[in-house]
Amino acid sequence: MNETLKSLLDPRGMQERPVIKLAPRVGIEELKKGKILFYDNTKLSFCNYGEVFVRIKERFREMGIENFVNYRETVRGKDTKALEAYAAMLAEEKPAAAVVALGDMGTSPATCIVTMALEKLGIPAVYITAPPGGELVEGVAVYRAGNLCLCKIDIYQASTIEDVRREVDRKWDYIIDSLTADPQKLKEVARIDFKMDLVPPADNGLLPVTKTIKTDEAGLSEPGCYMEEIMDYLDREHIGDGLPVIPPTQSRLEKMYAYCPFDPAEVLWREVGPTGKDVTVRDVAIAAVMAGCKPQAMPVLVTAFNALADRRYNLLQSVTTSHPGGNMVLVSGPIAQQVGISGRQGCLGPGYPANATIGRAVNLVIMNVCRSVPGICDLDCLASQAEFTYCFAEEPELAQWPMINEEHYDSETTTVYVLKAEPQHDIIDFLSLDGHDLLDTLTDCCTTLGSNNAYIPGPLVLVLTPDHGMMLKNSGYTKDAIREHIHRRAVHDVPMVRNRGLVPVRPPEFADKHPMPVTRNPKDVELVVVGGRGGHSGVILPWALHSESIVLPITLPDGKTARSIEEFKR
Question: Are 340 and 294 spatial neighbours (Cβ–Cβ below 8 Å)?
């Protein structure tokens, strides 16, 4: 049999797929005597969604159930441990049942974790979801709980109060069954029909492709044999990103470890994505194989994953958000050039293998291991090319000011900067004659009413071409002067950012600001000079939802700063 088929590794890793025991349900009389906990993850303040709980309480009162206890707190910025601790606090109320809402967008997975924790603590719960979050919640519940009472109602931002009430009424029988069904009926109520991974990964870690691919030419050992059939299988199983991949065999995996002295079992991320699976060095290496990376890419990838795992990055929500941003990886320092990551002309587009494959490997892990698959377990409304790959480097020869690695460490240290962000927005200016006029053009592009940072101030990256960088420097601008200018002038009039876009998340001291800045302070503005000569610079705008940019140095397993890629060679 073809060697590729015999040893094709499953890039999803191991999925434990636990099945939690749901809390015993109670009867209507018990609901009348006890408390009903209502937990709002703050999404009910959006548009007319608050009518969900209003109508449910009205229907309860019609049944003689009137003892309600209300909690409202965001799940954003909390990891699994913090979410479970919050559920334990809710459980101290000793409610007879709980109604949880709303699973409509990026908070859906975290709120699902709270619902699961309530069930484990013996509290019957029903979780109210709405598009597009309903499908994502189903995935989280399948991977992490096996069963859960999920009530999908069809409402959206323009739904009227009457629409919302009508949807609650339409699902009222399901809501009551979720809280009172006998064990046999509860199995049906809590059953989840899922669209993916119907058969969990095998214990041997291999993909069962031999069961679906004919091997009439079993004597052939050419690595490219059956490539079309392999890709068809991966596409059917939603493994990969839709582009052709290098089949991840054991021999290819071993070669990928040539510059990876890290323990393959080392955990880089914990409990992330719909699956809630830990991500290991081995998982990253398999994704690197599939993406077409060279082995020298592994130290960069390990550092990038350690940076993404920083609590301040808000990885739990970022891998399934409806925002179309990718996970940008910006490398500064000598190792970038040693492994071929480019910051030269066209560096944010095609043509540079290290840029393309390293960025791709990051997002393959998110799709394959976390199972954040578009249309099934990912909320992306449109998505973007930034979710295929998003990696480039600073070029020392082009830099007009100290690079990121020099600002944070020194010129011999290589750093990896990560940011959940939109694709670059083009900034054209071929006519300005000095840096003063140019800076006004650049500043005007640092936000729009349709950008997250109009409502959530946070980090952004100004990407200057060499010509624009020289103009600014020749006009006397330092990095800090540019940062200060953008912080003071990239603003919106307050009436323009009120009751549109999304619910603001701003520092408390911004409550009375006018106009409203899109950065919290000048340090939120990062600045690099890359690309080719000409008048097209760019700005990379952030997701910023409880999400920070993170900078880490590339280090050896013992924590020592690496000066050369050759130090990683095994």
Answer: yes
Contact between 316 and 308 (Cβ < 8 Å): no
Residues 88 and 119: their CA atoms lie apart, in Å, by: 11
Left if phi > 0, otherwise alpha if psi is -120 to 50, otherwise beta: which for 519? beta
pLDDT at 221: 39
Residues of the chain with pLDDT under 50: 1, 216-224
Rounded distance, CA 233 to CA 541, Å? 36
pLDDT of residue 218: 45
| pTM of the complete model beyond 0.85 | yes
Are 52 and 70 a contacting pair, CB within 8 Å? Answer: no
pLDDT at res. 219: 40
Helix ranges (H only) for 342-500 are 353-368, 404-408, 435-444, 466-474, 479-489
C-alpha neighbours within 13 Å on the C-beta side of residue 51: 18
CA distance linking residue 520 with residue 248, whole number of Å: 44
Q: Are 347 and 398 in contact (CB under 8 A)?
A: no
- Residue 521 is encoded by which pair of tokens? 């302070």
Look at the alpha carbons of 237, 242, 245, 248 in this order and tell me if their dihedral is positive or negative: negative
Q: Which residues pair with 479 in a beta bridge?
A: none
**Structure tokens given for 296:** 């020298």
Taking alpha carbons only, the member of 493, 196, 243 closest to residue 357 is 243
Question: Model confidence over 91-148: pLDDT tens digits?
Answer: 999 999 999 999 998 889 999 999 999 999 999 999 999 999 999 999 999 999 999 9
Q: How far is CA 144 from CA 74, 113, 114, 140, 390, in A?
A: 21, 8, 12, 6, 29
Angstrom distance (rounded) from CA 279 to CA 270: 6
Measuring CA to CA, which residue among 270, 319, 372 is closest to residue 545? 319
Is-cis flag, bond preceding 132, omega within 30? Answer: yes
Q: How far is CA 260 from the centre of its chain?
A: 25
What is the distance between the alpha carbons of residues 255 and 295, in angstroms, rounded to a whole number? 7
Q: What amino acid is encoded at 114 in this protein?
A: V
